[in-house]
Amino acid sequence: MNAEKKPDITNKSVLLVREAVMTAYSLTGNLSSATELCGELADEDLPQDVQAMAVLTKLHNIAMRRPKH
């Protein structure tokens, strides 16, 4: 695989982290609380991209268990 077709892990991680924070924001309604929630859900032993996807998955599970309006 040549360099131009190789996926950019850093950009994917940034996008996953951004998506996780925005999902947490939709749950908490507050950016500070959202970043705190993401930090609490993070497992620092995992690589950054896996960690971000795990946090996003946990947030989606939280959202699915919440009562719907």
Structure description:
The chain has 69 residues and is mainly α. The protein is built from 3 helices and no strands. Helix 1 (9-28) runs parallel beside helix 3. 17% of the residues are buried.
Report the sheet-strand fraction. Answer: under 5%
How many β strands by DSSP? Answer: 0
The overall pLDDT average reads: 87
Spans where pLDDT lies below 50 across 5 or more residues = none
Radius of gyration: 14 Å
- Largest β sheet strand count, sense and barrel closure: none
SSE-based structural type: mainly alpha
By DSSP (H or I, 4+ residues per run), the number of helices equals 3
SSE order and pairing:
Blueprint: H1 9-28, H2 31-41, H3 48-65
Helix pairs in contact: 1-2, 1-3
Compose a concise summary of this entry.
The protein is mostly helical and 69 residues long. It is built from 3 helices and no strands. The protein is globular, with a radius of gyration of 14 Å.
Question: What are the key terms here?
Answer:
69 residues; mainly alpha; globular
